[in-house]
Amino acid sequence: MKSTIFFRICLMLTLGYFGSQSVFAQAPNTATPLTDTTKYIVTKNDGNEFVGYILSDDGREVLIETQMLGKVFIPKSDIKSIRKLDYSEDVQKDGEVNSPGVFTTRYQFTTNCFPIKKGENYAMVNLYGPEVHFAVHKDFSVGVMSTWIGSPIALALKYTRGTANPKINYGVGALLGTSGYLNSGRGRGGLYWGMVTYGDRRSNATLSLGFGHFNDGNDYTYPVQILTPGTYVSINGEYPDIPIQGTTEFKSGVKLTAPIIGLAGQTKVGKKASFIYDCMYVMATNNTNNGTQNIEYQYDQNSWILQQVVVGDWQVVNPQQNILIIMPGMRFQRTESKAFQISLAGVITDGNSFPLPMASWFYKF
Hints:
Blueprint: H1 2-25, E1 39-44, E2 49-57, E3 61-66, E4 70-75, E5 79-84, H2 87-90, E6 122-126, E7 130-137, E8 140-146, E9 153-162, E10 168-178, E11 188-199, E12 204-215, E13 221-227, E14 230-233, E15 244-251, E16 255-268, E17 273-286, E18 290-299, E19 306-317, E20 320-335, E21 338-349, E22 352-364
Antiparallel strand pairs: 1-2, 1-5, 2-3, 3-4, 6-7, 6-22, 7-8, 8-9, 9-10, 10-11, 11-12, 12-16, 13-15, 14-19, 16-17, 17-20, 18-19, 20-21, 21-22
């Protein structure tokens, strides 16, 4: 009897022991360990980045093992983004991890064939006005550009694609603009281009070919008399009677068309600095079909009395102006979300030139 009671007590203790072990073994682990051996870039709201293996994520904080700091707990509320490390873009030649960032998708005025990634929207503020650009697809972005008075305003579109060669990308873009409330919104224009980029996001060069047009909206006309060509002798220094050959409609305003060639590039010159080069050659033509007539007044060399008037033929003129814009500059990116860029730009036209300095501030959001 005693042995039976003793056996039952031992059996209950044994079952209780293994049962307690089973309970403890089944207790949920709120910090689920991750076996993923992929390296990640964890970006905090203040712009600081941590690169390493994510060991656990319990929904409240992330445990990441970095090479420099070891294991680091980061609260989820402090994390802006978590993405896989892209060795082709995030790792420099010396092996240092440094994300190129969204600002490398453009130069000063023109853009390249690298897309704005989802979640990497940015704004640029310069001396002449603000602009913002949004990624609506992995290959397509939309932007808005304006001046500090909100007019004129333009819509920017960009579509890019890669090729089998990771260093060669191509794309197309467009700018559609209006004068806004200036000139009662009558002004309008557009710029359309195709481009090819060679290189990576840190060091690249882009060749672009485009076509632009602009109409200031001043479309009114007025009659202009055309004189009959010939030589007319003055009598007693008086202006001779010159017959009218006819009249034509003289068109006011500006109606430009312009083929454009662009060449731009950038390259890293330091850990947080890049050299930026942007250049555009514009061949603008005013298509108002206006004309001119050369009239020469000939005087006596001694008395300076009018002798005769020589009237030339009426010639239709579409003035053409070639414009070269050169914009070398430097970009300084202090953090992943902020950068400053300055360009000592210059404009060279037919017989004239003038400086066009630019300072720009980039903000990722």
